[in-house]
Design brief:
With about 300 residues, the chain is α/β, with parallel strands linked by helices. The chain has a single domain, classed as Spore Coat Polysaccharide Biosynthesis Protein SpsA, Chain A (Alpha-Beta Complex). Helix content is about 30%, strand content about 30%. It contains 7 helices and 13 strands. Strands 1, 2, 3, 4, 6, 7, 8, 9, 10, 11 and 12 form an 11-stranded mixed beta sheet that branches. The protein has a two-stranded antiparallel sheet with strand order 5-13. Helix 1 packs across helix 4, helix 3 crosses helix 5 and helix 3 crosses helix 6. The radius of gyration is 18 Å and the shape is globular. The two termini are about 30 Å apart.
């Protein structure tokens, strides 16, 4: 089987960050967070990386990443637009944002033929996550068996505001049986609380959550496309509707068409949601370089 592919979701607008955090520099030599994910993926045996980007940053992304990655891993770029995979009868001129992570994955269908991982551009997942993904995608993935790297909720919060997380329910085999996207989670005193529509919910700190770190068999595309085609007519008048990966995963589980294993490996995470997060990430990366987790310069 082919080496697995890494699909990086880099088309987000970054409204809370106030800029293109996908191409902002955080490492000691101006490295983006994306570069650490690619570096770790190469070490874990991945053979290709596919970037999902907005057309506004396509050329900038190519100029930034292609020279660094040439000869190290196969690279491809795919553009996600408001119109991508949306028939004209379902296009709404009032809509301002694409349809989310599940839509982004579908946009990459023609660029991926091997088992693949999906990650966010602005999250640092740690080398252990990619080692777990690489092993699963080479040895265990099947048409009806996908995976997700789980992270304890207490380790993936921001000190600078609320965060969105996919909160997981699991069975005795540590497989996903359901996920709820909660969009306003924060530490409040000694509790972690989600405030959805002013209805507070206390969530245990060790609850596994999704950081959008997935592993899929290529058959996922066909199933996601089927669910997408049902989603469009139901949401054509809702300009804020989003087609998330977790909603596809939930549907496949409910239909008993797939199991999703939750992998260990979610030990190190940091990310960028707010401008105030940047110095925290810069300091964390400097510390990892000093510990020898990464070479002084990633691509020399």
């Amino acid at each position: 089987m082919n080496k697995p592919t890494l699909l990086i979701l880099a088309a987000g607008i970054g409204s809370r960050y106030g800029g293109n955090k996908q191409i902002d520099g955080f490492g000691p030599n101006g490295e983006t967070i994306i570069e650490y994910s690619i570096f770790d993926a190469i070490r874990a045996g991945f053979g290709k990386v596919v970037f999902i980007v907005r057309k506004e940053i396509l050329e900038t992304a190519k100029e930034l990443f292609l020279p660094k990655l040439q000869g190290k891993i196969e690279v491809d770029f795919v553009v996600q637009t408001l119109e991508s995979l949306v028939p004209s009868e379902y296009q709404n001129p009032e809509r301002k944002k694409p349809f989310g992570t599940g839509h982004a994955v579908l946009c990459a269908k023609d660029a991926i033929q091997a088992p693949f991982a999906v990650i966010n551009a602005d999250d640092f997942y740690g080398k252990e996550a990619f080692q777990a993904l690489g092993k699963f995608l080479k040895d265990e993935v099947k048409e009806n068996l996908h995976c997700m790297v789980g992270y304890a909720l207490k380790n993936v919060l921001s000190e600078n505001g609320t965060v969105s997380r996919g909160v997981c329910e699991t069975n005795e085999h540590f497989q996903l049986i359901g996920m709820t996207e909660r969009t306003a989670i924060a530490q409040e005193g000694d509790q972690i609380i989600s405030r959805e529509d002013d209805d507070p919910l206390v969530i245990p700190p060790d609850t596994p959550v999704s950081m959008n770190c997935w592993g899929f068999h290529p058959s996922f595309f066909e199933e996601a496309e089927r669910i997408w085609k049902a989603f469009l007519p139901e949401n054509k008048d809702n300009i804020k509707s989003e087609f998330y990966i977790p909603s596809v995963a939930n549907t496949l589980i409910e239909e008993k068409k797939a199991n999703i294993a939750i992998l260990e490996g979610g030990t190190t995470w940091f990310g960028v949601t707010y401008p105030e997060d940047k110095p925290v990430v810069v300091a964390a990366l400097q510390k990892l370089h000093k510990k020898g987790e990464y070479p002084e310069k990633l691509w020399e």
